[in-house]
Design brief:
binds nicotinamide-adenine-dinucleotide; globular; 8 helices; 7 strands; Rossmann fold; alpha/beta
Length: 262
Amino acid sequence: MDLGIKGRTALVAGASAGIGKAIAMVLSEEGAKVAVLSRDKERITAAAKDVANKTAGEVLPVVCDVTNRKRIDAAIAKINSRFGVIDILVCNAGGPPMRRFEQMVDGDWDAAYNLNLKSTIRLCAAVIPAMKKQKWGRIINITSIAAIQASETLILSSTMRPGVHGLTKSLSNEFAQYGITVNTICPGYTNTERLVGLAAATAKANGVKPDRVYDGWTQNIPAGRLAKPEELGYLAAFLASEKAAYINGVALNIDGGFIKTI
Ligand code: NAD
């Protein structure tokens, strides 16, 4: 199936590793020009090289902290001048720390808001005017199964990310008339650096080995395994495609069946 995104410009945030990098890889394989964005110059340059080498695509590394509005504006200007209008936006960044309610200090809430909700608002605000003008756009917001099923240890995620779902739905209503779709992907347990960190934190909190933590997770996943990052990439690429024009305003779990609600 031809996804119809050859020559389109994509911006993938949080793309030096994990899910973001895997999405960038698949979009590049499909022929999109991809700007990969992250905070650390060395890591994002290495990720861009890796994606370009493996896909023979055009990949632009962009150094930017998505919690900083001025840096987002500068990043968008850089991408526009190199690749033109951003057709596909993937809003992604690191997840908030694992902490229970009573372990939280006031600033933790602000940090999670800036990282996981405000950054999405700002990235959307930066790209929508040009998408609207050209009457085509795809926005894909990455959240978590913790936005669907409340978590007491990832309470920051369960609190901030439903806001991204509300934003997604509102934007999808308003901008569908301009050929723009806005959807959310909710990853389940996915084999990335973040999960290694979460396993270590959970193991420490419970006084067990990380292997036991992984076993506990996979026992609750009907598929019996973690997601591979590239599986998130395939879903994102489909949502970004010409073929997905009628999928709008949805939140898709990709979790091997972990979420049990109907
Ligand atoms: P990861 O930690 O492996 O990668 C995160 C990426 O975002 C890295 O490239 C990092 O440099 C970048 N980043 C972090 N903060 C940033 C900032 N302020 N500005 C710009 N870039 C920033 O994470 P991942 O596992 O790939 O997860 C991606 C998203 O999906 C996270 O929000 C995570 O919480 C969510 N998620 C992951 C899982 C999982 O099992 N891995 C499950 C559910 C949800």
